[in-house]
Amino acid sequence: MPEPTGTETALNRYTALYEALGRARPKPDGDARPFAAAALIRAPQGEAGQDVRSLVQRTREHFRTLKEESGGWRAPSGALRWIYAAMMAAQSIDPQRYFALRDALKAARKASGTGTLYAGGSRAALILSLSDETTETLIARFFAIKAAIKPPWWRRDMSVTDMFSAAHAADGATPGEIVARRDAAEAIFAADRVLKGHKREGARLCTLMGTNPHQVVAGFDALRQAARAEKKLRHDHDRTMLVAWACEGLEPADMAAIEGLREALPRRCGGAGHARTRLAHQVLIADRPAPPGTSISAISAVIAAQAAMVAAIVASTSAATTVTSS
After folding, report:
1. b/e per residue, 26-65, with b = 16+ CB within 10 A?
2. CA quadruple 240, 246, 251, 257: dihedral positive or negative?
3. Contact, 16 vs 52, CB < 8 A?
4. pTM of the full predicted structure?
5. Sign of the CA dihedral with 111 first, then 113, 114, and 120 last
6. Are the beta carbons of 68 and 102 closer than 8 angstroms?
7. Are 318 and 326 in contact (CB under 8 A)?
């Protein structure tokens, strides 16, 4: 019997995590469970305590801690609480450090002059928790970066600004170098007829992931054509996904792999459409080192992508049911 491929191994691990999350109590609801499994799949392999049983047990423990500390209203709430718990378990984040960073962000917000914190600083605190630096250093760097990259009010999305500010702060970057790299990348995207409408998004991702924007622009069309050639993926992706995939370094052959994974995922995972595609993508890259390798920015990029993905899914679910779930 042939050895399973890397993708098959990741899919098997994802399925095992998904099934394990559905057993015992407490357990994620139908919206949260597939994405909690997607967060857990990126846990480092081969390390003690990173087997399926241990990861799921820690996720449940972190969920209880978040619920006890946050109550029924404080962020993260709803489905996102399970996602945060899974991310903490996968990346060995201490909940108490997360709480301390979140409280420090809120305490320093007013003096920073940078405006409100998205979700009370919960998403920024999660990403900042990846760093071992002191709270004071991280908080100061976060607000300095946020002040440098905050867009004008008419196109401001604080969830995005806080997420990227935290990722860069956790990675130890300085405001000046981030702005310079973003400006240079944005100019490259702006000069391209197809991608100019995604210049800011592309520049943000290239800067975070350390990707060469020239390579993204050069390879984007082949990636788009490959996605269009897949029967089901053709209708279940958008250009925003393609831009992100190009910045991650995905290649045309990966589109067929995503299509295959979409069909192989447990039937209840993400239903259909974009959500299922995003899950398939997470399985595809589970064992790939995200650019630039093993640095904190790579892990931050993964968490940022997962947090954005889940927020989008929760928002779309809320719109469809007219119930606010986050």
Report:
1. ebbeebbbbbbbbbbbbbeeeeeebebeebbebbbebbeb
2. negative
3. yes
4. 0.89
5. positive
6. no
7. yes
pLDDT in tens, 211-267: 999 999 999 999 999 999 999 899 989 898 899 999 988 999 999 999 999 999 988
| Total Cβ atoms within 10 A of residue 169 | 29
Q: What amino acid occupies position 171? A: D
SS3 73: coil
106 three-state secondary structure: helix
Q: Is the pLDDT of residue 200 over 90?
A: yes
CA distance 2 to 145: 50
CB 34 within 8 A of CB 306: no
pLDDT value at residue 12:
94
The DSSP secondary-structure symbol of 120 reads G
CA distance 155 to 5: 43
Written as six digits, the tokens of 306 are 């997962």
The SS3 call for residue 191 is coil
DSSP for residue 43: S
Question: Would you say 129 and 94 are in contact if contact means Cβ atoms under 8 Å apart?
Answer: yes
